Every structure is written in structure tokens, then in C-alpha cells.
Structures
1.
Amino acid sequence: MAPLTLDELRKKRKEARKEIYLREGEYKSKIIVHMGTCGIAAGAREIVSAFLGEIENLTEKNVMLTASGCAGLCSMEPMATVELLNSPSVKYGNLTTDKAKRIFKEHIIGGNIVTEYAIGIGSEKGG
Amino acid sequence: MAVRRIELMLCTGTGCVAGGAFRIKETLEKEIQKQGLDKEVSVIITGCNGFCGQGPLMVVQPDNIFYGFLNEEDIPFLVQEHLLKGRPVKKLMFTPSEKKEPVPLLSEIPFFKKQMLVALRNKGIIDPEKIDDYIARDGYTALEKILSSMTPDDVIDEIIRSGLRGRGGGGFPTGTKWKICRTEQKTPKYIICNCDEGDPGAYMDRSVFESDPHTVIEGMIIGAYAIGVSHGYIYARTEYPLAIKRMQLALTQAREYGLLGENILGSGFNFDMEIREGSGAFVCGEETSLIHSIEGKGPEPRQRPPFPAQSGIWDCPTVINNVETWANVPVIINRGADWFSKIGTETSKGTKIFSLVGKINNTGLIEVPMGITLREVVYDIGGGIPDNKKFKAVQTGGPSGGCIPHSMIDVPIDYESLTKAGSMMGSGGMIVMDEDTCMVDVAKFFIQFTNDESCGKCTTCRDGSDALLEVLTNITNGNGKEEDLEFLEEAGNAIKDASMCGLGTTLPNPVLSTLKYFRDEYEAHIKERRCPALVCKNLIKYYILPEKCTGCKLCLKNCPPGAIKGELKHIHIIDQSKCTKCGTCLDVCPPKVSAIIKVSGKETENITGIEEPYPVKKKEK
Ligand SMILES: Cc1cc2nc3c(=O)[nH]c(=O)nc-3n(C[C@H](O)[C@H](O)[C@H](O)COP(=O)(O)O)c2cc1C
Ligand code: SF4
Ligand code: SF4
Ligand code: SF4
Ligand code: FES
């Protein structure tokens, strides 16, 4: 490899930052996919992959994707909860990969709740 | 690499590797594959996380959940529960002693809470074998900054104004040392990174190499630019294979990126360096001795002045700094001298890394702001003393540091306060002692070490330490004389005054400080033939309390030399003429019974063990 110039080093840094974002803990939003046995059976893992695919396309990776246990609403699985910084969390149910992608674009990126898929707002706060 | 949902930051510092970290890594990867999570989860190796007492360990990100005492058997469950189903596993979390509920988050664990990471800012966050990880965390931005906007004098001024002092023991102001070397006429000049780390039990420097080698490299390039140096050396002890391997790899990567070598980042500045491995004798860490060793001569110290900054390797001006000192440099350049000098006390700026070991609940490596008190370190970070024992003293400064007693536990940790307390900052060893520690025995232990390590050049150091050792041995054997204490003081002070290098001038510290704060213990040994902590074998006896012994034969079966007489349901007797004082019987006697005690001094007088065992019943009225 040829030695780097100052500019090339800076470019490298920008690229490298994308690789370590999970460890630095600065997020604007959080997606929690419910991964209880029922959620997994209903297809929660495909939902995780769909969200991951969307995060991959972001230049600034400030979305945290995690899993949690069963939400107790097995008939609505697969489900996910979306939390934007300083706003109430929103629960979405009966997800498909297409729905997940739309939620990502409109809610996570755009900041607008996709009301037609939402099954509850703020229900996890205060807990 | 594609994005992941979870990263497992698995510690692969020397401690955790010894505990099986690489086997755990394999198992983790296998299970992740098995659960089909390999596109979502990756395992990242890191250097020492610091909480070595809990190793092997890892932190799950972005959840920030800490898991310790990992074991291959637990991995399948962990992967399925936490990584797949999002249910963190309580039984692998950290539970503070005397608490019932675990503390899931790393950031909430008291051990980490009061720490402040400057030199270790990347520990546990980056993979030390990947230069890109370091670069992502603002690595080499300080180098960019100096090459594009600072003159060598600007850099030196910044380091001087920051108040940074050497972390290798002496505490000499780093910027001033650089300036002295820069103004010397003679060329070429050299810089050295001292990673000899001869203090037994200390591993601060090894950890920096293992967790973030590039911060040292970047610090050294900055130093080289400021001082006007084109060649540097890293001196590391051969016993640090992992640290050396990671440093070697880091140097190769830095060279590939053009951060070392000719025309660094197109600036016209040239600098490169090489690793030298040392034999690892304690005195090799002394700067003039280390320089001799690089020159291929025997590692013996020489008289200073001239100081290395004036005349070092091949009589050329040479700046030698400790690993941790170098590791602080990039941060000071990036965040500025003003920021750095706000941390710490009037005379001691920034943070210091300590290895916290001994009789303390949380052992490991910590980085704390200067000025923090010993109390905060021992009780808040260290979690106090195990088994509700009493805190007795803390030994700082390595083998030639001093012991600071409980009464001084509120002393702030800075260069001057520790020296005033009869100890020193040293390179950062911190050994906590509880009430079961005999301070005379401790002093003897450290003198034994420095006596072995003395290079023998100065009579005071060589023969003086022999004499100290002999007297201390007599005292712990019960052959001490009243005039011994005066002798220890006089000899100690003479060795301090007349020895050539730091090994000799500091070696009496453990004796002098314990004499000052624990004189009563010395006196008990000499006047009453009593060891108050019940440690010194010649002064104690093991004794079975007849009113407690149930005659279970356990001690008898386990006594190695067969010194215990007894039969079932008989009061057992220790034949003192055969007892080697190994302590096994005390360990095996059932805790509910606790029939065996240690005694010392007057109480031992009538214990001979010539009686014969007699039935237990008789005693029960
Ligand atoms: C016996 C003895 C052993 C030493 N061992 C070390 C060591 O292992 N590492 C170290 O950095 N400094 C050690 N020093 C201190 C060095 O002589 C020197 O002061 C230090 O490397 C300078 O770097 P600093 O100013 O960054 O602390 C030792 C000194 C003495 C007297
Ligand atoms: S003080 Fe001790 S170790 Fe140092 S040069 Fe003299 S004899 Fe050698
Ligand atoms: S201290 Fe050791 S040698 Fe002595 S009686 Fe107990 S077990 Fe036997
Ligand atoms: S182990 Fe304890 S109780 Fe049992 S015989 Fe020995 S002293 Fe007695
Ligand atoms: S080696 Fe793993 S925590 Fe120190």
C-alpha cells in the first residue's frame, strides 16, 4: 500500500468510523425487535435483517438495533418498538419486511410515526 | 465489513487469555454461526478491559452489558438468550460482594464509575490489532494537527503547559525534558519508550501495549517531531510476548500507512523506530541501565549527571519516557494543555494508571484522576476488603515504595503527597493489605526482592540491603534485639544517601515506612516474641481448643507431616515438635466447629502437644 497523504488519512477515518459506531453509544434512535419464541416463529428474524439492511445504507450510523423478549402480545408478532430521542416510543405490530422498510424511512429517518402500523404509543415509558 | 447489530467486545489481555479467552472466542463464533446470527453479531477482540479479577470477560455492545467469569459451557445459553432473544443473562453479570442483585451495565459498575480514561481511552473499545479502529477513534489526528499547524517549539510548549510528568516513577516534567534535549547541539538524537516494567505484579504498561499500541506510537512520533529525532526505540521485556506481538503489528501497519518512515503524511518529516527486547531484570528499567542495554553493554546504571537528555545512547541526547507518559501525549495535543491541566492537583496533572491487587474485592487495572484519595480507590473502586477484614495499609510505588497506613487513607494520590507519606507514586503498583498481613514480613519480602535485584555496583546498596535483610529475618524469626530498630533506621538512611541509582536510594522505603507507622509490630516481635498478625511461623503455634473439637479426624487426615494425634470422638492434639505450621488443619476444620486457632507470644508458652488425645464425652460434663 502506498503511504497516505493527510487527506487520504482523513478519508480513511471517515470510513473507519462507520465500523465502530456500535461501541460508542451515541444514538438518535433505537429499534427494539421482540424476539421471544413467538416472535421468532412469526418471522422476527427477517425483520431484524430488513432493519440491518437499512442501517447499512446510512452514512451516519446513529440507529441502535436491539432485541428484547416477548412483549406479551403474541397475536401481533412480529413486533418492534421504535424510540426516537426525546419522544415517546411507538410499538408496531404484524410487521413484514416491506413494512419495516417503510417504518425505517418514514419514522426513523423522517421522524413521522407510521400510524397505520402502530399499535401503541408510549406504552413502554415509565417502566 | 457489513454492519452488525451486536458486537461482543471480548477481552484478550494477558490475564483473560490465560483464563481461556481465545477458546471462548472460538465457542462464541461457533454458536453464533449455529444460531444463524453471523450476519448480525461479531466478536471483536480487545486489550485488557481492566476488571481482570472477573476475567475472562466481555462487554456486549451497544447494550453495554458486562459479563465476567466466562466459561465455554455457558456460551450456548448466552448466545441463545441474549444475542438471539434479547434477554441478558443475569448469572453471568457482575454482582458486588454483599449485594444480591447484579449490575448489568458496565457504566453502572462501581469499579468503572470513578475512573477517568485518558491514556486508556480506547481500552475495550478498539481491536488493538487493527489500525483503522484506532484511526476511527480520532487516532493520528494529533499527528495531523502538529504536522499541519504546530512548530516543534509549539509542541514542547503545549506539553510543558499541560503539566505532564513522567509516569515511570520519577515524575520529571516531560516537556522540560524534551526541551533540554531539543536544545542540545549534538546530533543525532534518540527517543526511547520504557516498557521494562520490572515491578512484580504491575502490568500497566503491558496493558497499554496490548490494548492500544498506536497511542504510544503516535505519542512517540509527536515527541520525535518536537525534539528533532529520526530514530526511536521501544524497550520491552521479553516476558511480554503478546504486548510485543501487538506492538510489532502496529508498527508494521503504521509504516504501511506512511505514519512511520520517510516523509510522514507528505510533511517531509522522517521518523521510524524499532523494538528491543530486554532481559527483564528490575534494574534494566532504570534509564541509564536501559541505555547501556540498548548499546549492547551490560545493564548497569551509571552516575547521573549527565542525564540522558544531554547524553544518552552512544553519548547522544536521548529522551526516555515511560509507556504511559507517551500514551498521554496525543490526547494533550488534541484536547489542549488547558484541558489536561484542569485534571488533577496543583502539581500533579492528568490521570494515573494503577494496578490494584492484594486484599481487595475488585482487582484489576484502573485509571483515575490525580488527587483522588486512597479511600476512594480502596472502597469505591476496589469495593473494600474481602471477608469483612480490616484495611491495614496500602503499598504504593512498587518494591521500593512505602506502606501507607489506614490513618492516612484520605491522602490524595499525587506525587508530593505520596512522597510525604513515606512512599512514592512509582509506576503505579498498588497492593492492599488487610489485618492478617504482618508488616515486618512485608518489609522483609520487598527487601528480599531489591536485594536480589541490586546490580552490586554500590557497596551501600549491595551490602546495605544484605544487612537489612539479615536483621529483618532475625526479627521475624524471633531473634530480634532491641537495638535492631535503630540499626534499621540508620542503615536505611545511609543506603538512601549513598547509592547511585534509584534502586538503592528507594529500597529502604518499605522498612522505613513500616518502622514509622507500624513500630509497635516490630516491638512485639522483638520484645514479646509475638507476631500480632499471626504470620511469622517461628512466632506462632497452631492449637486445638479442647472445648470445641468434636473429634472428627479431618485435621488428622490432612496434616502433611502427621503432627496431629487423635482418634474418632477424641480431642485432637497437635504435636508441636512435628508441626510445620502449614495451616492445612485450620483450613479443613469445619467452619461450624472452628476448633483450631493460631496463637503467638505469651500464649504459646505452655503449648507443647505432649498430651494424649482423650474422649470428647468427658469434656461435655
Ligand atoms: C530500579 C529502577 C527501575 C525502573 N524501572 C522502570 C520501568 O520499568 N519503567 C519505567 O518507565 N521507568 C522505570 N524507572 C524510571 C526510569 O529510570 C526513568 O526515570 C523513566 O523511564 C523516565 O520516564 P518518565 O519520565 O516518562 O517517567 C526505573 C528506575 C529505577 C531506579
Ligand atoms: S544503587 Fe544498587 S542497583 Fe543502583 S547502581 Fe548502585 S548497586 Fe546498582
Ligand atoms: S499447621 Fe500443618 S503441620 Fe501443623 S498441625 Fe496443622 S496441618 Fe499439621
Ligand atoms: S478438624 Fe477440628 S473438630 Fe475435627 S478433629 Fe480436627 S480440630 Fe477437632
Ligand atoms: S486481561 Fe482481561 S480484563 Fe485485564
2.
Amino acid sequence: MNNVTAVNDLVIRFANVNGTGSASANDLFAKSLFRMGLPVSPKNIFPSNIQGLPTWYEVRVSDKGYLGRRLNVDMMISVNPQSMEKDIKDVRSGGYFVYDNTKPLAQSWFRDDVTFIGLPLTRLCLENYSDPRQQQLFKNIIYVGALSALLDIEFDVITDIIKEKFASKEKLIPPNILALELGRDFAKANYACPSTLRVERRDMIGDKILIDGNSAAALGAVYAGATVAAWYPITPSTSCVDAFGAYCKQYREDAEDGKKNYAIVQAEDELAAIGMVVGAMWNGARAFTATSGPGVSLMSEFLGLAYYAEVPVVLFNIQRTGPSTGMPTRTQQSDVIACAYASHGDTKHVLLFPSTPKECFDMAAESFDLAEQLQTPVIMLSDLDLGMNDWISEPFAWDDQREYKRGKVLNAEQLDELTERWGRYNDTDGDGIPWRTIPGTHPTKGSYFTRGASRDEYAVYTEDSAAYKRNVDRLALKWETAKTLVLEAEFRLAATNTRIGLMYFGTTENAALEAADRLAADDVVVDLCRIRSFPFTAAIEEFVGEHDLVFVAEQNRDAQMRTLLINELEVPPQQLAAVLNYDGMPITAGNICEQVHEYFATNEKSAAG
Amino acid sequence: MTFIKSTFRHPELPTNELGFTRQYYEGVLSTLCAGCGHDSISAAIVMAAFEANIEPHKVAKLSGIGCSSKTPAYFLVNSHGFNTVHGRMPSVATGANMANRDLQYIGISGDGDTASIGMGQFVHATRRNLNILYIVENNGCYGLTKGQDSATADRGSHSKKGAPSPYEGIDLCALALQLGATFVARSFSGDKHQLIPLIKAALKHKGFAFIDVISPCVTFNNNPGSTKGYEHVRDHLAATNTIDFVPERKELTTEYAEGSTQQVTLHDGSVMALHKVDKNYDVSNKSAVSMSLLDYSERGEILTGLLYHDEESQDLHQSLGTTDVPLNTLKESDLCPGGDALNKLNQGLR
Ligand SMILES: Cc1ncc(C[n+]2csc(CCOP(=O)(O)OP(=O)(O)O)c2C)c(N)n1
Ligand code: SF4
Ligand SMILES: [Mg+2]
């Protein structure tokens, strides 16, 4: 048989049963590769139920540093009889299928182009462990042990992780190490080790960290001084608020009396969640909510109020596959338009698009500064892939000199010093951003009535058309100011001149960078632009202007970012070509390249015809 | 159009302990229909805040949408106000309260705002025992959208243009009681002698203080056949008690006859002396209160007064264990763990 031969360029997929403790074994596997200095990108592919259905965990190793998903499973570790038949089919020709052979496999399932590696996981567990729970759990650790031999993972690296993990529960260390040894020894005794697939230590990690985007965003909120979080559970955003709670417990509780410098309220729905954020921010605290698409739909009315009444709001939208419930545990970037123009009337919202955990942290913190400086909602659009999977990331950093930018808020002394009448909606600085006051600041000055109804510069109710128009025009001017405050895009220009661009945002970055390398090898040279904020900055407008053709790669059906670019920058639609992926799985470089080539093939054909 | 009231003040107007006149507690001129019950409630709030020596800037007044929800503009002009969206005042008030536990929150809502579109938020703010005075200005109809029946319209009641309501009316007091409100009262916009002390007591209560105030809509629901019109309400009022509100630090001087008075101590030490109409009515006995509400409503009578009070009330901050100072006063140094902690955390992620 012709086995695939590869060093440090692998896709390993684990087929597990949801809720059987496979997660920690899989993490152990990914972490050991990370500790060997190798870029890894693990992904959970899971159903929307809790227990019993198949789940997959896919790890890509690439010493070219590519972190996007790639197709072709080189090795499948199958411990789920339910999905086994299909899992066998999913292995690439020349790949490996590792399975529990305590019970024999149906003869008809065998393939002659795949190497089958049977491990008696159940039998080994029954023989070596007496506790029924351990008999179940250690199956997972045994296969990690076997993989260490098959893939040549440094055994010490794995045992070190075990020792660190159970430092405070030491008696769990020996049974774990035993399981690793059982797997390793069985593999070595019965199969060629290493296989034709293996890993080798590299020095590509440096000081990077391994963490998921939701934890990073939560940590950013802690660092930014968020004190109020209001939320309603929804995958894939739940783990963000859970992490906020855990970090607050760590950093924000009084050592003596346990009193909390934060309040987390689980609301009755997303309408209430965002209402609480509006109330808390109006009252001078930093507050946020985290949700996903269906929640954003419910929050829409309040987003309009906050935009118009000019109340800061911070919202993290961890996008999933829509519309409606769609595939709630799969990823997509499909709330771009829903968020950009959320709510009724003329509304536009500031958006941020993180693409790494470090950026989730930084942008989460930035959201609060922007929301308070601009007195408007800021929505950070992450996604399930980034939020719920571990990623290799630059380490977090915080400059202790940094000060929160709380925006234009008048304190009691400033109110006393005012010589002219203060108006809540009076643009005294010409940037469209008025000064606000926080309730309770001054006994007689600075109180006003906040409302979603039309009012004049002094917050006095009016239905005068001219006053209404002045107000919404000022909001448009504020939008121009926002363009100067939001985060600049990231540009990577090709070494040679080109008239072709590729734009992307968020988690599409990983596949796009890999695609750019591959396209260059096929003589398609592209300049790259990663959009990080909405409204689009002047530099984005220039980038589009300087290229005859710009591909916009994104993970939704309707090319939402492309639409936004066409609409906001008044670009001729034919100048922007859509590259789309929307099957719920993260986009791949191969997919992008294919669509780019297809574009040229069709357009050259039509030009020729 | 906005009406600014004349600022002329008679030099010898009486002032309260803070040195403020009653006028200091007023708002801008109301634009509601003349005779609207809601205006009487605003006047009662002005009087109660004046008499209870409330500092206006330490109050935040919030509302939903409706004629009733417009009224926070008509009292306490020196307080910040927030006219939010329809039915969602409770969540905004919850967030505001989380941000600053030291302010007093007055939430104003209508029966449409609370009992229909906002029912969910009302229910949950109540069960969290949010520290707020929550007033429903209950006229049995949607005044602002021209008189449609609301969910508090009694079965068989009909508005000016409407047919008898075929549905069961929601009794918000019974509901609030069941949901864990720790102060439940009902009153009538036309009875300021009962309403003002109730508001004063509610302002001192720590927890969810709910007052359902029947407040006739003169334009759409004050006709014969309506159970929320002035005449019907006056004819069917039944009071459990009337209240003397005795602020903290003042002594209870009057002697009351045994059995006819129940004393209720509020969180700050103020005392409510309840002059009971029915000797057996006990405002701390939840199940008995529940029964009474049912009994009276079956007889077609409107039970008013302080219906229920829980002296052990624990508000949301206490349930959450938040720190004693308002969260919105915490500084960067209190909140940000700093660069070193982050480096340590990074180390654990390698
Ligand atoms: C989302 C939404 N739906 C509908 C309305 C229209 N609306 C405004 S006020 C109101 C009813 C108010 O009734 P109520 O709360 O009883 O107040 P009242 O005017 O009777 O005092 C309605 C339906 C709205 N403002 N927002
Ligand atoms: S319509 Fe009814 S509720 Fe509205 S202001 Fe007039 S009387 Fe009051
Ligand atoms: Mg009403």
C-alpha cells in the first residue's frame, strides 16, 4: 500500500461520543504538539446536543504555520461505533484508521487503500482499571499514548502536561501515565512505529499561547473594567460569559469578605440582556453582553435606541450558522449586515472583527473605549470557530500606562465651571460627539431626559422637523469621526506589483494567507487586506481603488461584506468578486484558490467568447 | 412644544429638611389630557419626594412607552430620566441599578407597558427583587395608541368605543405577590391621602416595591361600563388600611388602639403605622393576602392600601454579593488586574 508520507503536515481527526470525556484527551494531544514547537489548529466539530451524538475533533499540524482548516484526513482515531462506517470513508487514500478492536470490525467496512490500526482500548481498560468511570475515561488517554508512538510525539512532553494538570490532585497522575504507557507499548509491539506520518520538534511557537477566543474576549472585558455583564445563554457565546465569571472570581473578589467588584445577571432573554447593558452604561458603568445571531435579532430595537439616544453599548456577537437556528454549533460569518445596520430607521453600528485570541482580547478592551468615546453601540463580531476552539496566539499584553478612554463625560466641577447652557445633544466640538452626564453627578446641573423620541440639542422633546434633521445629521457626522477612531485594516502587499487584491476578515484570515501563497505559486499574485473595523477607513477605500479586481473572501452565502463595501464605498460591483464558504465548516485555502481560479476561467472564457 | 413652568417662587413657601420647596420637585408641564389620572400620580410623587426629603439628583426615573411612561418628565426635573422602549424599562432599570446601587430608582409604567409587551421583564425584575419603586399607572387601556383594551381590563368591562372585554383581566398585585415582590400595594390616582404615604414608604423600601395605581383614562376609558373609570373605582374601593408614614429618627407618638394598627419597620428604620380596616388583615402573611385579593376581586371590589410587605427583603445586590460601593465609582486601579497578572496568565497558557 502507498501510505501518505508526511512530517509536520498532518490532519488528524478524532471521532468521539459527546460527553464521554474525550475532550481533555484531545486537548492533551494538541497541547503536546504545541509544546513541541509546532503550529497546531484544533477544531471541535460537535452536534447541538449534550450527550450521545458523534463529535469530532480535528487537529491540523503545519510547520508552514498555516492555521486554517484543510481537507483530507490523514489519520482518523475512531472511538465511536455509531459514526465508524462513515469515518472510515472520510480517511484519505493512503491514510490510517485507528480504532478500538476489542470487538471485530465488520469485514465489509475495510478498505484496501487505508491502513487499519486496531487498539484493544476497551480490553486494556477493563484489565487495568477497576472503577467503571476510569474504564471509560482512560480509553481516551490510551489512544493518546498509542499516537505518541505512531506519530513520534515526545513522550516526556505528554507526561509533563499530565503532571502539571494534576499537580493538585497528585493521585491521578500514575493512572494517567499508565494509560499513556499502555497505548504506547501496545502500538510499538504491534505496529511499525513511527508510521509514515510523524511529527518533529520545531521552534515555531516562541512565546505564543494556546487559548480560545471567547476566554480571550472575556479577559479583555475584565481588563477594560467591565463591571456589569448581562446575558442569555446561547451557543457559541455562552463560554464567553462563563469565562468572564471565572476571571472575575479570580481577579475581582475581595480576599477578605468575598464581595464582588462585578455583577453578572443572567437575563430572561436577549432583549433584557441588552436593556441591562443600556441601563448600566447610561449610568456610568462599563457593561457588555455576549450573544449569537438569534440574540442580535432580539436586541435590535434596543440597538436603535442606544444609537439614537447615544448610549454606549458593548456587544460580542459570536456568530454561528443561520438563518434562524440554522446549524447552531457550526461556524459562519453571516451577521455582518444584520449587525452593521441593526434596528429600524437610519442606524449604523461600529463593528470590530477579531481574527485571533489576542485580537479578541485587544478588541474587547477597545470596544469599551470606542463605545464610550463615540457614545454608541460597538459590536465585536467573532465566530464559533474562533470563540470555541483553541488557537495559537500572540501572548496577551497590557500596558500599565494605558488609561481607559471614557469619552466626553462632565463631572461636577466641569458642570460648575460651564459658562454657557449645557445641552446633552449639543455638538460643541464639531466632531458630532456631544458631552454627556451620569445620573447623580450634580444636585442641580446636568440632569436631562434620555429618550428615543425626537428632541432638540438640549434634550427637550420636540417634533420640529428641522431639529430632528439636525440631530440625525449630527449622528452622520459622528459616523465620520468614527472612521478616524476605529482600528485600521491590516495590509500585506505582495513583493511584486499587482492589480489584484484579496480582502477578508476574522477567521477567514488563516485560509486567506495560505491561499495567497498557493495562488502566488500559480502566478496569481494578490495584495492582501484584512478588514478589522466598520465603518471602513480611508485606507480601505484606497486599497479598493488601487486594485482593478478585489476578491472578498468570507463565510456566508450572500457575500455580506462585499455588499457592505459596495454600499458604503460606492464601488462598482464587478470590481469586487465574491469568494464564499457557507456550509458551516471553516473555510479552507483550497476552497479560496478554487474559486479564484474558477473566476478567471469563467471571465477569460467570456472575454474570449 | 414644551412648557417651562414659571420659575417665580413665593419667598415664604414651606421647605423640607433639605431646604427645598415642593416646587423644586416638579417637572416640566404635562401634555397629557386634562383630568388624566396619570397627572395626579405625578403630583403625588412630587409631594412624596418632597415630604420624604429625597435628594432629586440621587434619583433615576425610568419608564417604558405610553402616556404613563411620559410622566417622568413631569416630576423631579433635577433627576436624570430615561424614557426607554415599550415594555423594557425593567431591564434598563436593572442595569442602571447594577451600575449604581446608591441611587433611588423610580420606574413608571402603564398597564400595556407592563402587563402585555413588558410582562416578561416585569416578572423577572420582580423575582430578582430589584431595588426599585415600580408604579403601574393602570387605566385598563392603551391610552397613547387610542384606547385599545389592555390585559388588565376586567372581563366584561368596556371602553368608550369598545365591546365588553371577553378575557380575564390580569391582577398585577396578585402576580407581583406570587413572583416575590417584597412590597405590594394598590391605590387610586384620585386618593392622594392614601397614595402619598404609600409612595413615601415604597421609596424607603429596599427591594421591589410595587404599586398598582388605578388611573383613569378620561379620553378612552372613563365611560359607564368601564371598571377603570373614576365613578366605578370610587364606588368599589375597599381599603385594607391607611398609612401613617413615620420617617427614620422621628418618634411614633400617636397611640393606636390594640388590634387596629400594625407597625411595619422599613429598611432604614422608618416606620409605617397601618390603620387596619379589617382587624384580621396581616400584611406579612403572603398566603392570606393572596386569598384576600381573590375574595375582593370575586366580589367586584378593588382592594387598596399596603397589601403585602416583607421585612426580610434581600435585594438583587445582596443576592449577587456585589461590593458596597457603586460599581460605577470603581476606578481602573480597582478593576484592571494589570500587566504582571497578564504575563503570569500567559505563562499558564503555554
Ligand atoms: C415595540 C412597540 N410596539 C408598539 C408601540 C406602540 N405603543 C406605544 S404606547 C402603547 C401602549 C401603551 O399603553 P399603556 O402602557 O397602558 O400606557 P397608557 O398610554 O395607557 O398610559 C403602544 C402599543 C411601541 N411604541 N413600541
Ligand atoms: S389618552 Fe388617556 S391615558 Fe393618555 S393622556 Fe389622555 S387621558 Fe391620559
Ligand atoms: Mg394604559
